[in-house]
Structure formats: structure tokens, C-alpha cells
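Lab notebook, bench 4. We co-purified these components, and the gel suggests they stay together. Before we commit to crystallization screens, I want a quick structural picture of the whole thing.
Request: model the full complex, all chains together.
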Amino acid sequence: MLRMWRVGLLSGLALAAAPAHAFIAYVSNEKSNTVSVIDTDTWTVTKTIKVGQRPRGIDFTRDGKFVMVAVGDDDTIQVIDAKTQSVVDSLPSGPDPELFAQDAAGKILYVANENDNTVTVIDLEKRARLGDIQVGVEPEGMTISPDGKTLINTSETTNMAHFIDTTSRQIVANVLVDARPRFAEFKHDSSEVWVSSEIGGTVSVIDPKKHEVIGKVTFEIPGLRKEAIQPVGIGMTRDDKTAFIALGPANRIAVVDVATRKVTKYLLVGQRVWHVAFTPDEKYLLTTNGVSNDVSVIDVAAQKVIKTIQVGELPWGIAIAP
Amino acid sequence: MIRWLAGLIGLGVAATSALAADPVAIGVGYLGVAGTRSTLSLVEQPAENDGIAGAKLAIEDNNTTGKFLNQRFTLEERRIREGEDPVQAATALAETNGFIIADLPADALLKVADALRDRGTLLFNAGAIDERLREADCRANVIHTAPTRAMLADALGQYLVWKKWSRWLLVVGSHDEDKLFADALRRTAARFGAKIVQERTFEDKGGARRTDSGVTLIQRQMPVFTQQAPAYDVLVAADESEVFGAYLPYRTWDPRPVAGSAGLVPRSWDAAQDQWGAIQMQNRFVKLNSRRMTALDMQAWTAVRMIGEATSRTNSGDVKKVTDFIKGPDFSVAAFKGTRLTLRDWNLQLRQPILLVDGRMVVSVSPQEGFLHQVSELDTLGYDRPESKCKLK
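Here is the predicted assembly.
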């Protein structure tokens, strides 16, 4: 007991002494069946948590107390206590969960189940499954509009973004995008949804009111064949000015001017970059690089890669404590 | 509460479909040959529904998408018996189906293609790997989702050369298709700098593939057949007829790996392929068909998905419109191979990565790193545009 108290005191002191930008990032390692915990002050892995099979989608609960990680091959979402950094619970997600989104209050979780073409609705407090919404083939990307009224789900083989009314839980519109849509991201002002198409090699910009594709972001990297450019993860700065788009086996992050939808810069990161997350102060962007088994750290203002951190095998998703 | 919500979701779905007008019907025919061929390995014995099982899954996938676009896909199957006229069966299918997936021998396919040309039916060759169907005998109304022998041979050859196994002992069966595969392998060796140190022919003297105590005999025959060979790195077998290939691994006189028709085999697809999201489709396939997915299943799946992709992009079931779109420059299809697949516009062959498999695992995927091309690295597999003899008509 005494010892615990001492440890507590010491870590408390350490926290107080740490610079302001110290955050904790959680990275799901698809092949290792682990989650790596990264301290953004020292840029080191401070813990590796054993989780279920094939961890992919990962996010914090709104209160910042728990990390949820979809472990697809175990057909569940595991809950990690952010304090003890160990798995404490699991959610009834439906088969093969991959990505999920939660409402603003953090009460309802929407999970994409790749194996049975559904989105599962879960009550987070009661840990109960509320129902399913039928969508296209291989649902993947999930996001909720800033006003909480619309859920967007992308289906990889149907090649659509499904717009779902979160109150009625009905599909209100289906927007066709390029092949294998992987990820959807709203602009913070709600005026646009950006959807990445991995095989199509583009990002579609959708007007969420008219449900129409109003523009496309395209990529061209000299010396690289077109097929290698496979956009997946998207991160947009809070001022909606700059988007960072992970280009998969092109091993680059595209920096995009949101207003003109043009790429201004390509940043070389690790191999097969999938997903990205900002630190809450937006000073840094972290990317998961699957094939090189590492995480790249980008200085957002300087638009430069400043650090690489080794994590587990095939890092996939990333979440940073709020 | 939970029940009430679930009910609401159910109602929502019902209401949406009740509002919809009659869906656009898109008929897909499947034309194959009755009966299955016999393989040396019991494990590899094709199922009765080999091929069409893949088409069936793609129809389901297309219909899941179709319900958002008010399109409905149907599948109609015909099997030709020995001595039956393929044209008659094809014409009957074409009455109600604008698209036909064919798993036919080359000659039958050509007859069908020519008979249906004026009708505007679009054919997908999902089964025949013959080069001539994409070269001198190419047709403007036939799209090929099956790879060619040269594509398969090049995929294997690139890997063997990358592995620095460049001295090949080539063993060829005595049937025509074995010789055609051997031709492709010789071309590959010449292109990629491998050396065929010797060729041997394995005569098919008849005999049953299933016997009691067969193993004892094979164990004596194969070492003898492969002895006294010049120094070589890998034995490459050309045995499409399933006469001897599968007997070679572990039984060669010299301890050497086997590739080609046995050992390390080039295929468009394999039940072990789980990369690039393929696991989802493999799961769907097993759930629907209660068996694992073969290369032929995949070639048929891809053909039906190409139709679905084009009908959703054009928002139309019109055969002419859909055909033009598939043949056009903007067409591509995703087929769980890590890259978009497109058509070679000069002969309507689908470009595709080829898997190298050993029966349990995907060992590698070609094109291999370092085999470069000015247009698409996928065109390092098979005959390229400048070599093509195809004039589409």
C-alpha cells in the first residue's frame, strides 16, 4: 500500500513536471494483437497491451476514461481502462467489427460489421445492442456529422457513402464514390464530407445537404505508378484549412489545401500508411505505417516528419487521449 | 426500448422498399460444360458448381448494391453436355440475358462469340487461358477475366528469377495444353533470363488416377524419372492434364523444389488469399457455398462484379451502355488484389496480379518488385501491346 502510494505520488510529480504537450497515443497493431501506448512527450512506447485478435478501429470514449478497440477476429470491441492500461470489458459489436463512430454525448456507438453488411447500434452505458442497419457490401468507414444528426458509413464493395439519419436510423441517401471507399471525415463546419477511395485512388468531396459529389482530390507523385496511390485515413485541422491524407503503399501523406482541394505537399512517412490522428493541441499528426511497423510524427505547422517510433506488427489505427 | 428501436429500424427498411418503382432487371447467363475433370489430388477435385458459385456470390453482392440503385441482378445457368451444340445453348441464354459468363474450351467459346456478335450480347471468358483467344483469335465481344498461360508463366518466372533459381529442369506432359504451357514457360525463361537446362517429356500412357497402393509405385517411378539431370535449381512442370505434376514434389532424384503445375503454382486466386480485405469475401463465399473459393470461382465473380460496377457507374442496365463503359478508359474494378484491375484495351484482357500458391499459403504475388513497365507493372505479365497480334472485330 505504501509502495503504491509512493508510485502514485512519483507519477503525479512526473506528470506535473512534464511539458504541456504530453499526450498519450494508442496504436492498434493488427498482426501482433496488441495496442502500443505512446507518450508524446518522450515519443517512446511506454506500454504494450495484449488485446484480442486482429485489432483495428480504435477510439477513446468521450470522457477520455476508456479506449475502445475493435478486435475483428474475436467479433467484439474490447474496452481498455486508460488509467490501468489493461482490457476491462467488451461490447456486443456483431461479427467482425472494423471501424466505429460514437455520438457527441458518447452514449451510442455505431459499428461497421464487414461480414454481414450491417451497421450495429450499441448503447454504450448499458453495453447493449440496440439494433442493426442494413448497408452495402463490406461496410467500413464511419463518421458522424458535427451536429450529430447524420451518420456516414462507406461500403467497400458497393462503393457508396450511405447517409443515415441517427434519429430514425434510416438510410436517407446513397452517394456513389470511387472504388473501395475506406474512410469518411466531416469538415468541422459541416459543409463537406470527404471520403477516401483506396482502389479508386481519389478522395470524393460530398455536399452533405444535396448528397452529391461536388469535387474530387486527386494525387500524382512523380516516379510512382498510379496504382500505388491508395488514400485511406484523413485528418482535417480544426480551422478546416488543411487536410492530411494517408496514401497507403505510396508511403506518403498528402497535405491538401481544403479550399482549393489541391495537394500542396507530399510528406514521406513509413510504408503503407493507413490512419492518422492529431494531438489535441494540433501541433503533431501521428500516422500508422503498416509495413514498416512504425508511427511517423509530423510537425503540423512545419509540415515535416520529425520522428519515427517503432510499434508492433502492422500498426493500423490510432487514437490520442483528449 | 430495445425492441421498440429494432422495430423502428425494420419499419424504416420496409417503407423505403415500398416506395421504390420496379427495379431495372439485369440478366446474367452462365454457360459451362457438364461434368468435372479429374485431378491427381483428391483435395483439388473441382466441385460441380466450380465457377458458378463465384458468379452467385457476385450476384448477391451486386444485389446488395442494387437495392440502393433500384437494380436487380439474376443468374441463369446452362451446362453443355458432350456432343451438344454450344451455340444453341448460348442463343437460348442470350434471349433473356444481355451478359454471359462462359467457362468453355477455346473453340466452343469462339463459335458462341461469333454467333452472338450481331445480337450485342457481351461475353466474359472466365475459364479459358488460351493465348490465341487474346491474340489472333481475339473478339470484340469477349472480355477475359481468366488470365492467360503467358501471364501465369511470367508470374511464376519473375518469382523464380527473383529467388535466383534460374536453372530450370522443364518436364512437359504429352497433351496439347501441356505443350502450350511449356511454350509459355520457355518464353518466360527467355524474357527474364532463366535457363532451361534440359527438357523431359512425361508420356501419358493412360491409367487410373485413383488406385490402391499407388503411392508405393509413384515413390519408385518419380526418382528414376528425374535422375541424371544436369545441375538445376528448380523443376518446372507443365502438366495441365493432371497426369504427373502432383507426383513430383518430395520425389525428385535431386532434392529440388517443384513449380509450375505442382508445388509452387501460379493462379488468379486461392482459398488461402486473405490480404487486401479478401478475408471478407472468402467468408461470404464459404457462408454461401459451404466450400472454399477457387481461381475459377474468382474469375466468374470478377466478371459479374465488372457488370455490377458498370451498371452502378452508368446507373443503367442497358447492355450497350454498360459494354461501352467497361471497354472505356474510366473503367476499373476492385477484386481484393491490392490494386485496381483494368482492361488491356487492345485485346480486352483483364490486367491482374497473379498469386503464387503452394496449396496451403500464398507464397508471393507477382509482378515482383523490380519488374518495371512504362504503363502498368501488371503488363510485365503476358503479351504486351507491341507484341499483340489481336485486331478486335
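The longest strand of chain B covers residues 24-33. Worth comparing against the SEC data before the next meeting. Residues 1-19 of chain B have pLDDT under 50 and may be disordered.
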